[in-house]
Amino acid sequence: MSSNLASKLRIGTKKAHTMAENVGFVKCFLKGVVEKTSYRKLVANFYFVYSAMEEEMDKHKNHPIVGKINFPQLNRKQSLEEDLTYYYGANWRDQIKVSPAGAAYVERIRKISATAPELLISHSYTRYMGDLSGGQILKGIAQNAMNLSDGDGTAFYEFPEISDEKAFKANYRAALDEMPLDEATCDRIVEEANDAFGVNMKMFQELEGNLVKAIGQMLFNTLTRRRTRGSTELATAE
């Protein structure tokens, strides 16, 4: 029996996916406007979210449904620790804290793990498939926008244990389709995936204020430098 869950997730979350891409922070990121302070806060939030998700997935590694997509090579916790060390230093654990939206995300993951573990599929699909699909593009944007050297602060986008990302995604989708799920369960998984996009959007929206302030400061600094340079040039001409 095939559940066709992969297709249902792709079609059923299409609108939510588009909405997430149109959040101000994400639109700015995709256009190459990335500010380091805001970005490192996102990395910190991701650390709490992925740590929770991977801990709960591991608890259910022998679950007849969830266990089918428990691929340790997808895990991001270690790579996020590397990035946090880069952005905050060796004592990063003492400096980071989860935001309200990030805390709500973590709480949701813990809750469904305890009450309806099959819904962890929704969060795995939403995060990991997105990471694999756009990771290298986002890595390049982050490097250019924040003037990062190769390998600095972008470990999150690297999957060293996955040699062929396209083939891996095909295998992941096949595992979803082969799950012995009824229609009602598939519908709940799709609904939870849409909610997962929603909590991701809230995390991005939290960062918009910081990003706007940073862009405003950068513009102010640029204008100030231009005015100073103009005054100096005028004084020299006189």
Per-chain topology:
Blueprint: H1 5-12, H2 14-21, H3 24-30, H4 36-59, H5 77-88, H6 100-115, H7 120-146, H8 165-177, H9 183-237
Helix pairs in contact: 1-9, 2-9, 4-5, 4-6, 4-7, 4-9, 6-9, 7-9
Mind explaining what this structure looks like?
- Helix content is 71%, strand content 0%.
- It is mostly helical.
- It has one domain: Heme oxygenase-like (Heme Oxygenase, Chain A, Up-down Bundle), CATH 1.20.910.
- 29% of the residues are buried.
Descriptors:
71% helix, 238 residues, Heme Oxygenase, Chain A, mainly alpha
Question: In a few lines, what is going on in this structure?
Answer:
The chain has 238 residues and is an all-alpha fold. Helices cover 71% and strands 0% of the residues. The model has no long low-confidence stretch (mean pLDDT 89).
CATH topology: Heme Oxygenase, Chain A
Which CATH class? Mainly Alpha
Count of helical regions: 9
How many domains is the backbone divided into? 1
| Stretches with pLDDT under 50, minimum 5 residues | none
Q: Report the count of strand segments.
A: 0
Overall pLDDT confidence: 89
| Class of secondary structure makeup | mainly alpha
